[in-house]
């Protein structure tokens, strides 16, 4: 009997162990996996853009789900980490859960959908591993303003943008402040030149009175003649708008900036040609401008007669920056003005050997089917096609190196096509959202281009390109104004830059600042597209004609 009793216990124990082992294996076999997550039918591996504001999130699992555990195991969080309520329905024998937000989501915002291991199968098995997916909602494509004619829209853009050069004119000097967020006494030499040209546009279009435009330009010229610091006749990049003292642009850049001076002179020449009446104020203005221009010692900046111009000179650091002005970039205007100077002209050799680098300026490659005559691959930032050509008319402008309308048009089309094809995959880039140039970006500033694409679009890039790409630029203008206008269109025109890429750039970003050197070309190049006003004024100046002829250009004025 004893033997049989122990035998029975042994058999019973083996049976119990076997049951426990089988139960554990069964629980493991009941564990579930998520086999697919889709949002509005679109598979989501890690993240996805362009989701509407009332999405359906579909979670497909490897086994039927325990219904009462589902909502406890999922979360939808917005960019501020706040929970969005969810409702759920089931399909495919409860193996698929379909979630809907309890309210409309916000446009252009990041959301995170997550499922924790608290998700249970109907038989009690847990989720193998937690899952999280990010998505960004779409642009609000509704029209923000009533549709008006394109001609009225161009008037609207120019008039509003011109306000920058009135409201951000320094109260003492009349010169233009660097930016709306910069310290208020920093005024910009080049931006003031652009601003003068914008003021002339405003007078011509009756946005401001002739008396108001003349008064501001006269105040600027008086300050430049009698108060502002100069170095061999050239002005620094930044000045104190009240005292005229240099404000260093960088540690070694605390003296002359010849390129900024050229941009200023470009504007002053246009003003001299525009205010051509016999009124004493206009007569005096022209005389003052001639004095300012005549004082610039262009050839001194060859640094001991080298066949090239140098960008900077400092009274205490001399040529420490040692930056040659060599092409292709925004500086062509500097050589034209230096060659045409009455008092201190440079020789043609400085242009050919220095600026053109004995032909090294040429590119000659083809990008997106467009031949690029000059400059870096893909053309560089678009301001290369703007700053010198606020006054220089590229139509029919040709020298030994390029036909300049072709150069600027193809450069712009390369930039446009790059953004349209969007090889870097930034959300929002399209045939209506394009234009890479120097601008503010989130927490900084960069010279955007196809080879330096950070995902930030500057409205000035497409809008200042109207003379080259009117159809493409108008499409961009329509989108910026009608679709993005509630975020982008402010008191002084379009803000400096924006990014629509929520996931790559830390959320959608719309700048709240304006820069003189970006607002000015918008007004001026739109006017050159519409009437050619600034081109006509600048190209009629004798020193411009002389400079172009000396450098071997053919042109029409």
Descriptive account of the structure:
This protein is of the alpha+beta class and 557 residues long. It has three domains: 29-137, Immunoglobulin-like (Sandwich), CATH 2.60.40.1220; 142-151 and 377-532, Alpha/alpha barrel (Glycosyltransferase), CATH 1.50.10.140; 169-361, Glycoside hydrolase 144 (GH144) (Glycosyltransferase). The protein has helices at residues 2-30, 67-73, 150-167, 189-204, 210-226, 258-274, 280-295, 332-339, 348-355, 404-421, 459-463, 470-483, 485-488, 516-530, 533-539, 542-550; strands at 34-39, 42-43, 47-51, 57-61, 74-77, 86-91, 96-101, 110-115, 131-137, 186-188, 238-240, 256-257, 312-313, 366-367, 370-371, 438-441, 444-447, 489-490, 493-494, 498-499, 509-510. Strands 2-1-4-7-6 form a five-stranded antiparallel β-sheet, with helices on one face. α3 (150-167) crosses α4, α4 packs antiparallel against α5 (210-226) and α6 (258-274) runs antiparallel to α7 (280-295). The termini are far apart. Residues 1-27 have low confidence and may be disordered. Keywords: Signal. Residues 323-541 form the Glycoamylase-like domain.
Protein topology:
Blueprint: H1 2-30, E1 34-39, E2 42-43, E3 47-51, E4 57-61, H2 67-73, E5 74-77, E6 86-91, E7 96-101, E8 110-115, E9 131-137, H3 150-167, E10 186-188, H4 189-204, H5 210-226, E11 238-240, E12 256-257, H6 258-274, H7 280-295, E13 312-313, H8 332-339, H9 348-355, E14 366-367, E15 370-371, H10 404-421, E16 438-441, E17 444-447, H11 459-463, H12 470-483, H13 485-488, E18 489-490, E19 493-494, E20 498-499, E21 509-510, H14 516-530, H15 533-539, H16 542-550
Helix pairs in contact: 3-4, 3-14, 4-5, 4-6, 4-14, 5-7, 6-7, 8-16
Pfam family, one: Glycoamylase
Domain Glycoamylase-like: 323-541
Domain SbsA Ig-like: 36-137
